[in-house]
Write a structure and sequence with these properties.
17% strand; 5-stranded parallel sheet; alpha/beta
Length: 191
């Protein structure tokens, strides 16, 4: 068993300024850093992936951003994905990135068996739970990822954070801590 810190890749499903999913991702990162993990944030928008189009793929090949996503997943022991909810579904940003990943010859090979923890955030009462459940199914079925049962949907996320960026509610903070530790434990078992 390696003594090197576990490597955790954190992805937010929204890249817009002030996104609640980014705030929740950052709260999870602080917990993971505190647990001794080596964390890295991946900005999906920075990958520069166009909307998936088979004709574009034939004409230009798979964009370099898909290779960057593949390489980031391969380089980490586990992933943390935080999704907002757009019309009851995960964001096009996260779905499109993984759609492009699937077009690489070894795209699904690097994702197979990779532990993933899911969080969701929304100003609504359900906290993006519907989107998170769709994302769970998508990652498990299309990418053979090991999406862990512990998860967290943060409702009223626009009111959920303290000034320091942590979750203000002690129960919500304890749940986040549990989800982070669950993915790190699973990653350690698979190392």
């Amino acid at each position: 068993m390696s003594s090197a810190p576990l490597k955790l890749l954190l992805i937010a499903g929204s890249a817009r300024h002030g996104a609640l999913s980014v705030r929740l991702r950052d709260a999870a990162r602080r917990v993971a850093d505190g647990a001794g993990a080596a964390t890295e944030v991946l900005d999906l928008r920075a990958l520069g992936l166009p909307l998936y189009d088979g004709d574009l793929e034939v004409a230009q090949g798979v964009p370099a951003g898909a290779t960057a996503l593949r390489d980031a997943i391969a380089a980490h022991d586990a992933l943390f994905i935080v999704t907002p909810e757009y019309n009851g579904f995960p964001t096009p940003l996260v779905i499109n990135a993984f759609d492009w990943l699937s077009r690489l010859k070894d795209g699904t090979a690097v994702s197979a068996g990779k532990p993933v923890a899911l969080l969701s955030s929304s100003p609504g009462m359900l906290g993006g739970l519907r989107a998170m459940n769709f994302l769970r199914q998508y990652l498990q079925m299309a990418f053979q990822m090991l999406v862990l049962p512990p998860q967290q949907a943060v409702g009223r996320a626009n009111e959920a954070f303290a000034a320091d960026g942590a979750l203000a509610d002690p129960k919500a903070a304890a749940t986040l801590d549990g989800v982070v530790h669950a993915v790190l434990k699973e990653a350690a078992l698979r190392r």
